[in-house]
Design a protein that fits this description.
Blueprint (H helix, E strand, L loop, with lengths): L2 E9 L3 H8 L5 H4 L3 E6 L10 E8 L2 E13 L3 E6 L6 E11 L2 E10 L4 H29 L8
Antiparallel strand pairs: 1-7, 2-3, 3-4, 4-5, 5-6, 6-7
Length: 152
C-alpha cells in the first residue's frame, strides 16, 4: 500500500518569503520537530541535483536519509526524493500566493514502503499527517512571529 499524505496551511506572509525560508533545507530543523540535522552533500545553493543528508526521529526511532532535489521552480515548487532505506519517499512543497500578503503552502509526502512497512502503511500515514500538520503550524508561527524570524 502506498502512502500519500497531503497537508496545507495558509501563512500570513508573501509567497516569496515563505518559499525562501521553507525551501531552504538548512532551515528544516527550525520548523520540523523531528528533523535534528541537515548536512549538504553538494555545495549550495539549492538546485536540481542537490543532495542533503537528513537525520530525523520518526515514531521514536532515528532515521537517516539522503534527499536529492529532482524538481525546483523557485517560489512555486520543490520536489525532493530519496530511494534508500525501507521507505523510499518523495517530498513536495508547493507555494501559492493567495494575495500579496498570504501564501498557501502544501506539503506532500508519498512513498511505497517495503517489507514490514507495507503492513504498517496506514499507521505511518496517520503519524505523518499528524506530524506534518504540527510542522506546518510551527512554520506558520515562526514566519508570522516578527521581522527577526522572517527572511528578507
Amino acid at each position: 500500500m502506498a502512502v500519500d499524505v497531503v497537508t496545507d496551511i495558509v501563512i500570513d506572509r508573501p509567497c516569496a518569503q515563505v518559499a525562501a525560508f521553507a525551501g531552504e533545507p538548512t532551515n528544516a530543523t527550525a520548523w520540523y520537530a523531528n528533523i535534528t540535522s541537515v548536512e549538504w552533500r553538494t555545495a549550495p545553493p539549492l538546485q536540481v541535483g542537490s543532495t542533503m543528508d537528513f537525520v530525523a526521529r520518526f515514531l521514536g526511532r532515528p532515521l537517516a536519509y539522503t534527499y536529492e532535489v529532482v524538481e525546483l521552480v523557485p517560489g512555486e515548487r520543490l520536489v525532493m526524493r530519496t530511494a534508500q532505506g525501507p521507505f523510499p519517499m518523495e517530498t513536495t512543497y508547493t507555494w501559492q500566493p493567495l494575495d500579496a500578503a498570504r501564501t498557501r503552502m502544501t506539503l506532500r509526502n508519498r512513498g511505497e514502503p517495503a517489507g514490514f512497512g507495507k503492513l504498517t502503511a496506514p499507521v505511518l500515514a496517520a503519524a505523518m499527517r499528524r506530524a506534518n500538520t504540527k510542522d506546518l503550524a510551527r512554520l506558520k508561527a515562526l514566519l508570522e512571529s516578527g521581522p527577526a524570524a522572517r527572511p528578507e
